[in-house]
Amino acid sequence: MTDQIIDTSGRRDEPTTGYDADPASPSDQQHVASSSTTPAVSAERIAQRAYDIYVERGGEHGRDTDDWFRAEAELINTPS
Fold first, then answer.
1. Distance of CA 57 to the CA centre of its chain
2. pTM of the model
3. Which of 13, 31, 74, 75 has its CA 20 to 30 A from that of 50?
4. Which residues pair with 42 in a beta bridge?
5. DSSP string spanning 32-72?
C-alpha cells in the first residue's frame, strides 16, 4: 500500500505562463533585457506577443517557452 499526501491548504499555484492570465494585466512591470546595449522590453509586451504567437499557431499547448523566446527576440530586434 502506498501513502498518499493530500494538500488541504486550499492554495493553488499561480500560472507560470501568460496563457492562463490576462496578457494585458499590469501585474508585471519588470523589464527584460539580455545585455546593457539591448533596449529593455517589458515582460507585459513579451507576454502579449507570446500569446499572439500561441494563437497564430492554433493554440497548441506545450511550446510556451519557445513562444516567449521568439516574442522576446522579435521585440528586441524590432526598431521602436
1. 16
2. 0.52
3. 13
4. 31
5. E-SSTTSPPEEHHHHHHHHHHHHHHTT--TT-HHHHHHHHH
| Across 1-7, average pLDDT | 59
C-alpha cell at 59: 493554440
| Distance (Å) of CA 55 to CA 12, 13, 49 | 26, 24, 10
Cα–Cα separations (whole angstroms), residue 17 to 29, 63, 76, 77: 15, 11, 20, 22
> Given a cut of 90, is residue 48 above it in pLDDT?
yes
Tell me the residue type at 69.
F
What pLDDT, in 10s, does the model give residues 14-40? 445 555 544 544 444 444 544 445 568
Angle, helices 43-56/64-76, rounded to nearest 10 degrees: 120
Q: Residue type at 16? A: T
Neighbour-count burial of 7, counting CB atoms closer than 10 A to its CB (0-12 exposed, 13-18 middle, 19+ buried)? exposed
